[in-house]
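Anyone have tokens for Alpha/beta fold hydrolase? Sequence:
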Amino acid sequence: MVEQAEIRLADGPRLHTRTAGSPDAPITVVLLHGWVLDGRTWHRQVRPLAEIARVVTYDARGHGRSGGIDRGAATLAHLGDDLAEVLHAVAPTGPVVLAGHSLGGMTIMEYAHRHPADFAARVAGLFFLGTTAEGHTHTVYGLPPRVAHLIRMAEMTSAQVLARMGDWRPHRAFALALRPSLRWLLFGHPCDPADVTLTTRAVARASLGSIGGFRPSVGTQARLETLAELPTVPTAVLVGERDRLTPPVCSHSIAKALPGAALTICPAAGHMLMLERPDVVTEALLGVVRAALDGR
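Reply: yep, here.
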């Protein structure tokens, strides 16, 4: 059974949370979703994890069913602080495993950077999925670098416009029109049409302010030094071979910065690994949780 609730953040926005598993479980797993997505993208991992852990997913500010944001709050710094508040609210004691996809992984790094003592005291395992510690340094969308540079310039200009639109959400028809582009950008092969539908609907729920507002912070992120200073805990890093947003070089850098991290590159897969390769992701995540429990 999944329990749904809301957390009111210190600066006002509310976060929509989902919790599964026994409240007496020996460890809590927090699953963080990607940019313009929501917690539902982890739905295939929740049930297996809930057999051995308490599992928490939540929609980041400006995403999914969570409240909106003002323009100044669309930063990784705010997301890192939000994670600290979520942990305090839903898992104030006991060890936690943090699992982050894309923006979610960047959020974990920001939490570690801004709350190092908290991180060291609480975090017993890490799981990074299709993410980066180097902003858009390696993002070329699977295209020639010159073409990618032009696309990024257009993207940044569009982001500035969208950031001013606050809580407005894209019309459903517009989101559906994006479906072919999202299929190409986010998925590899094979691809289940139902997963593309779920992803498209998540994008439609993200506020325009979030879609544009987070772009500058995400693009300039630089947290390899933070990773190198983290305490050693069981860690897995996974990436799709055909990930156009956070290509394998990003995960190689993360694994290199974290001694002992297990790196897995999934052949032919794209950015949405938890949907594209659910069994691989679930088994790797369960492995981190079990190792974290054994290390207690």
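The first helix runs from residue 43 to 50.
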